Amino acid sequence: MKYIGPFLRMNSLNLKNLENQLFFFAKESLKHIVLKSRCGVTISPKNFKKSFPNNDINIIKDFSPLLCVYKKANPKVIKDKEYSYWDSSTFKKEIVPSSCAFMTLSIMELINYYEGFKGIDDSMYQLSHLYKNLAKYQLDFYTSYLRNTDGVFIIKKNISEDSSDELKFEEKESKFKFSDQALMMTAFLKYSLLEDGKDKEAYKSFSQDILNMLLHFKDSLYDLSFEELNKIVFSLNISYCYEENPQVVNFIIDLIELLKSRYEESMVLQEKIDHSSLFRINLMLSAKLCSLEHFSDISKVIRDSLLELYEKEKGIILKKSIKKEIKYSSEDLIFFILSMLIDNEDDDDKYISEIITDVYRHQIVNSKILTSWPESPSLDSPERYLGFTRSSKHLMDEKNFKISTLDSPRDNEYSSVFLKSLEYNTRKETFTPSKISFDSTKNMNLIFIIIFLLKDKVYDNYSITEE
To answer: Of 16, 31, 124, which is closest to residue 454 (Cα–Cα)?
Structure first.
């Protein structure tokens, strides 16, 4: 009976549970990576002293906030008294602009969430101040250290001596990516909308400068790969969501039309789950933000094509392949689920709801593409209750936070992160995840897109309905 319980609880998941779980995983994974992993250049908590009432830095005394995030590491947790962090000897100290931009965007996305705890839970509420101040430190770090002599953001490597306070970086790659610049543009724009001080216009102006650069090189963008253009459009969609800019909406429409023509002409692109799913997400965002109905029509065609990959008997999406081993990236699976969730409101399509929960159960949870699952909030935490009320009548079920079939970081001593990929053996019908490793180019991207696309749904799920 011990096995049957968790199995039945998994089967009883609805889309609200699933949305809450994914959001909770992303939020807690981000918190650990940014504040405790030390996987990057860190900043002393003393720098945040003025951010807290009575200069009480005890709230964050065990934190080591990141100014940037390294590309790779082993996410195994090392425990030292009250501290826990990752082994620095495993760090690959390359710093990728997109990973950093996604990290900063993610913490800024959560500021409103933590502001909801004002007057309810001081430690949770203070995270809103910490994240806002940290975002500024991070953005200032990027402009100082992650640009080349031309002023564009590029991949760099930290070559500083461990015993030295002086930071030294070398260019890892001289070429820059337009998608990295677009993400940074969006991050600086987002912060300018949060900032109410004298620096507000400086961040806004810097964001506009990057947009102007992208527009200036617009003709060059037409030669970029579908993947790179897809990423740029995603950044533009986020930017337009933050602030309606006519320059951006026209840019989006132009690039989407280009993506559409390329997609329709290439069977190879249509068979790539991650590219198709992100393109569909872009189409849905653009249709909503730009009020263009024909984008929705295209997205429905892609949706139907993606749904054809579903194998009902196995409960998984199966790539078209003659190979015995089929490889899935973490983006394949998460983007697929999000692309289906984005317009499947209130379980209105039971067939699609079944597909989403099946793929989530079999290819995300049971496949072990996650190293662990964060501990759910305690019964003392307001996060455990609808409306953060701490009222027993508003207690949320455990399945809104935790999957009982996965170990917690305390159980297996691995931080909760996404692994790079997994392989499915079509004969044995088994999954084999890639080796345990943290890749920021995967994780920060996935964490952000989960938080960005699901935050409104989760906030609605937390609301108290009339009794």
So the answer is: 16
- pTM (two decimals): 0.94
Q: pLDDT tens across 100-121, in order? A: 999 999 999 999 999 999 999 9
* Closest residue by Cα to residue 339 from 318, 365, 325, 359: 359
Task: Give the model's pLDDT for residue 57.
Answer: 62
CA distance 419 to 439: 8
CA distance 109 to 269: 31
Report how far apart, in Å, the C-alpha atoms of 71 and of each of 40, 44, 45, 234, 368 are.
Answer: 9, 21, 23, 21, 22
pLDDT digits (tens, 9 = 90+) for 22-43: 999 999 999 999 999 999 999 9
Nearest residue to 10 (alpha-carbon basis) of 314, 353, 358, 368: 358
Residue 40 — left, alpha, or beta (φ > 0 → left; ψ -120 to 50 → alpha)? left
Residue 296 has pLDDT above 90, yes or no: no
DSSP string, 52-108: SGGG-GGGGTT---BSS--SEE--BEEEETTEEEE-GGG-B-EE-HHHHHHHHHHHH
φ, ψ dihedrals at 419, nearest 5°: -80, 165
Run of H or E including 177: none
